[in-house]
Each structure stands twice: as structure tokens, then as C-alpha cells.
């Protein structure tokens, strides 16, 4: 019987306007041609239901195509209409093939559940829809071709018996068992030569776009990543406190919050706006006073006379314009190179946090929290990546609105199913607990919550800072030892290992103990530490490639202001050490 005849239809608005943008169609042709299929047609149409259906219908009516493959338009995008275009043409549904396609892709990513494949026959033609992703196309074709699934189906559709000839595998089918080689007839090669041969035979990986989620651990960037906008995109703060005008003198002010005042509205006179680290300033405010420089003056009372929210707060000092305020673009400016081509996304969470931080996911922006303007959800994907990289199962409680009831509701859900709870930002329940003065990471809060009836009567909870770098650093310093203790690790192994390293860059000292993000490399003369650059706590890019946290002591009154190149410093190891 002659080779099966195939027609490929690429469905894409972009590729229909520029054929060079069609990446999956040529891949399908190449794979099938190598397998001996005859590729008769390859067309490109936009994401238009009528155009898709007309093209496939024409091929089926011509009776010169055995297998029609479409690629693209099978997801949940607004313009994804391929399944709707194909279903009316199907005369005999092939639900087993649909299951095969989904099962194959789900082995690689749970997002495959969002694909909507269609398979079946129209007249004497098999029709199968594939996604537009090159990676998914390769996975789906492998499932269809390996094991002869499609070959068997096409043989039956074309009137064959579907029976496959029986084959026997042998080292050398032309020889009896007694005459086979007792030693390999192939020459031995050196390890280097073997590695060179393997490298030459391994094809470069397929380049595909992926959502920025924790599953990207181990991926390699195929292109440079640039910031799509300024970060932050508006005036924000780097402390917990109250936004006000720098001209407001010390005194008593009414407190408004994101629940009672819109950011777009000018801050009224005689009021201050309660703000958390990373939050945007309301219109009219140009400075932020820290909580430590205020005093509670009055509270809102419940009907029972209990103190509830702040009503009035007294400011104790004047603040200059711009105090504790981050300007737009002060962390990353639009167009800045944030990650280079070839960068490996590791399980320390820095790279995933950076991609989310600059608003990239395919790079696509993550959902903003309640009342936050232009600020990306960085900490959830980065922390989830680290935890899953350590083998922990993560229950994502999502982004919680800034009100007490929402916090309590989310915590109740977490207490029912988790052994430990992590939050980032400034949860209201944390205002009455203790914190740790460390840089970056003030305040980091730890508490336990009673859970009667559970095997463990108290569930530990960590409130990590909202700044991205602070959240990841405090996670490694405080949360990892707690997780290991919960897991039964010996006490001497609960803390992450530390080694002495030689500084290759000067590092300034702060009044607080500081963990300086660095890249640790092993050399013939010992371990070396290279700074990752600016260490501002909001700068998650300082964790790109970081595998160590250099433990810098607090600056003494009469001590040095910095440690210099060549100094030996204790360093906490958070990732695989590189070789120089």
C-alpha cells in the first residue's frame, strides 16, 4: 500500500500574516516526512472558524488525503476556535485518540488539561487537531506515531486489515544464537570521544513559550528577557507605615486604608493612608512615615466596646519629600536586560521571581492583589518553585484581599490541610507578634496557631516580608530549618550548610546583620564569592543565579564600614556550587 498522504493546516492569525511565524507546521511536515509519509498540502489560515472548516472540508472531499492535521487554536484563548470548526465535520468520533493526546501531554505539564483536542474521521480521512506549541506538537506526534497507533488507524480507514507483521528482535537476525558475538564488534572509545559523539548526536531542544510557574525549574532561557515596563510602575514604598504629604507636620491624623480610600483619589487633608511594603502611594502623597515613628491615638470601637481598627494615629516626626518612597523604574526600567539567553532557571526561586517581578510569563503578568496597581505577584511563584524543588507539596491559597475576614478565612483553609503556613506581605494578624531584625527581612514573623483535634496541636506560621528578595532570603534562613525539623531531620542538619568564602567584591556593612546574595564558585585555592549587584530588598534580580548568602555582621560603632576583596566570610549555601 502506498505511503499515507497528509495535509497540514496551521491555524494562526500571526502566521497567516507572516508565514515565517509558523513554527509548528514545518515541524509536523519534517517529522512525518522522516517517517515516510507524503505531505501533499500545507496551508496557513487565520483563527477564523469558517476558513478552518472550509479548508479541511475541501481536503476531505478531494479524496486524496488520508490524514488531516491542524495545529493551533485548541486552547482557551478568545480566538481559539479550531475545535468548534472541526467538530461539525466529524462523522465518527475517535475519543480514544483524544485521551491519548491529553495523557501524553499531561505527563509534562498540568496545563495540558486546558487543551481541547478533536479527533475522528470524515469520509475516508482521519482528522486530528494538535496545539500550536512546538513542544506539545512533538509530544503529541510521538504518542500517535510510536507504537503504530496512527498507522494502524490509517490502514483500517483505507480498507486494510490492520494486522501488523510479527517481528523478532535479535543482535544479528542473520546469525543463529551460537554464532553471535561473545564480545562487542564495535571499537572502544575514550570517555571524551564518547561524550563528543553524544553531544554531536543530541539535537538542540525545541524552543517554546511557557507560562511562568513553578514548573519551569530546570528550563533554559532560549532568548534574552527584557523588562516589559518600569518596576515599580508607580510610586511605591519600601516600608510599612503611612503615606502622607511631606508638608504635613507632626500631629494627629485620621487613618484611611485601601478599603476606605481609592488610590486614584487625592488624599484628603488631615488624613494619612496606611500602607504596606511594596504598596503604591495614593494620589497627593509624596512621603511615607514608618510605623515606628507613630503612636496610636484612637481606635474604632465595636458595639461591645472592643478596639477594632485604627481611627487616628499621631505622627511623631516630620518626613522629607520622597522619604521611604521608591520611584517608578527604580528597581528595573522598561527595556532593561533582566535575564540572559542560556540562563538556567534553578530551584532557588530567583529566576522565577524575577520573571514574575518584571511582568513576564510567556512572559505574562501575574494577577495583581486587591488594590495594587501595576505590582506583580512575585513571591508566590518563586516560593512555590523553591518548595517544590525540595520535594514539598504546596497548597496555593491564592492572593488574599487586604481585610481581616479574608485573612482569617484563608488561614482556616490552610490550617485544615497544611503542616505549615507561609504568608508574604503584612498580614494584620502579625501586628501583635514578634519579628526578626535582619536585612533583608525586617520584619519576619513567626507564630503558632492552636489546632485542637489534629495530630499536631499547633501549626507553625511564618509571615515573610513582602519585598521579593527579603521573602526568599528569610525563607532559606528561617523556614527551611523549620521544615526540616518538622520532617524529622537530625537537629545538627536542620540549618542549611555554611562555608567560608573569599570575597571577590567589596560588601558594605549595615547597622543590622545582613545576608548578601552572592554567586559561590569553587576554585583551586578555595571558595570565592561574587556579589550579584545591588542588594535592595525589593530587587529580586539580586537572586538570579545566587547560590549563597554571605553572612555580614552588623556594622559596629567604631568598626569598618565594609568588608573588602580577599576577606574570608561565613556563607550559607542555598544552591549548587559552581566550578570556576
UniProtKB/TrEMBL annotation:
Cellular component aspect of the GO annotation: cytoplasm
Highest taxon, organism lineage: Eukaryota
GO molecular function: ATP binding; metal ion binding; molybdopterin adenylyltransferase activity; molybdopterin molybdotransferase activity
The entry's keywords: Magnesium, Metal-binding, Molybdenum, Molybdenum cofactor biosynthesis, Transferase
GO BP, sorted A to Z: Mo-molybdopterin cofactor biosynthetic process
Catalyses which reaction(s): molybdopterin + ATP + H(+) = adenylyl-molybdopterin + diphosphate; adenylyl-molybdopterin + molybdate = Mo-molybdopterin + AMP + H(+)
Cofactor dependency: Mg(2+)
Pathway: Cofactor biosynthesis; molybdopterin biosynthesis
Enzyme Commission identifier(s): 2.7.7.75
Gene3D superfamilies reported for this sequence: MoaB/Mog-like domain, MoeA, C-terminal, domain IV, Molybdopterin biosynthesis moea protein, domain 3
Region (Disordered): 160-183
Pfam families for the chain: MoCF_biosynth, MoeA_C, MoeA_N
UniProt keyword Metal-binding present: yes
Ranges of residues in domain MoaB/Mog: 7-152, 354-485
EC primary class: transferase
PANTHER family (alphabetical): GEPHYRIN, MOLYBDOPTERIN BIOSYNTHESIS PROTEIN
Role, per record: Catalyzes two steps in the biosynthesis of the molybdenum cofactor. In the first step, molybdopterin is adenylated. Subsequently, molybdate is inserted into adenylated molybdopterin and AMP is released.
Recorded family membership: Belongs to the MoeA family.
Protein name: molybdopterin adenylyltransferase
Organism, scientific name: Grifola frondosa
Source organism phylogeny: Eukaryota, Fungi, Dikarya, Basidiomycota, Agaricomycotina
